[in-house]
Amino acid sequence: MVDSGPLHHREFTMEFEGIFGSGGAAAIWPPLVRAVEMRNGVCIMRLQGNVGREAARDAQKTIDEADRVGLFHYPLLLDFAGTSGSDFATVAHLVNAVRRRKDAHARVGILHAPAELRTQLEISKVEGLLGMYEDEGEAVRALSEPKSAG
């Protein structure tokens, strides 16, 4: 039985693929999302284009739907390969992604972070909240491991 917690993995996978498609970006996602997939219990969201303030305005629909299917109970890996134009609105969305997953002890990682985004995270003093990766396999392994207490 599932109450307010995450969907069981099989139920989640069926729900996830039904709504978001299998490895593609369904109509629910704003244009900045190129593809979404699950791998070893980690949600991988592949982004494209400008991920700054202009793109952030379309994000609320995605956030609402992700919440509905229990996506905030799973680790998230955001792939920034092929993106441009990050700004401090991007940083704010990343901090909110971490905050939404806090109760579930699910982490957020960034794959292929552009230099501009790395600088913005450092200036904001929040780079320690996120795992930074250049290798997808390493990122999925790290994010799928149980988070240690403390």
What does the model show?
Helix content is 39%, strand content 19%. The chain is of the alpha/beta class and 150 residues long. The protein has a five-stranded mixed sheet. A two-stranded parallel sheet has the order 3-5. The longest helix has 14 residues, at 88-101. The protein is globular. Residues 1-14 have low confidence and may be disordered.
Helix and strand arrangement:
Layout: H1 9-20, E1 33-39, E2 42-47, E3 49-50, H2 53-56, H3 59-68, E4 76-79, E5 83-84, H4 88-101, E6 108-111, H5 115-124, E7 131-133, H6 136-144
Parallel strand pairs: 2-4, 3-5, 4-6, 6-7
Antiparallel strand pairs: 1-2
The rounded Rg comes to: 15 Å
Beta strands, count:
7
Cα(first) to Cα(last) distance is 30 Å
Order of helices and strands: HEEEHHEEHEHEH
CATH architecture call: 2-Layer Sandwich
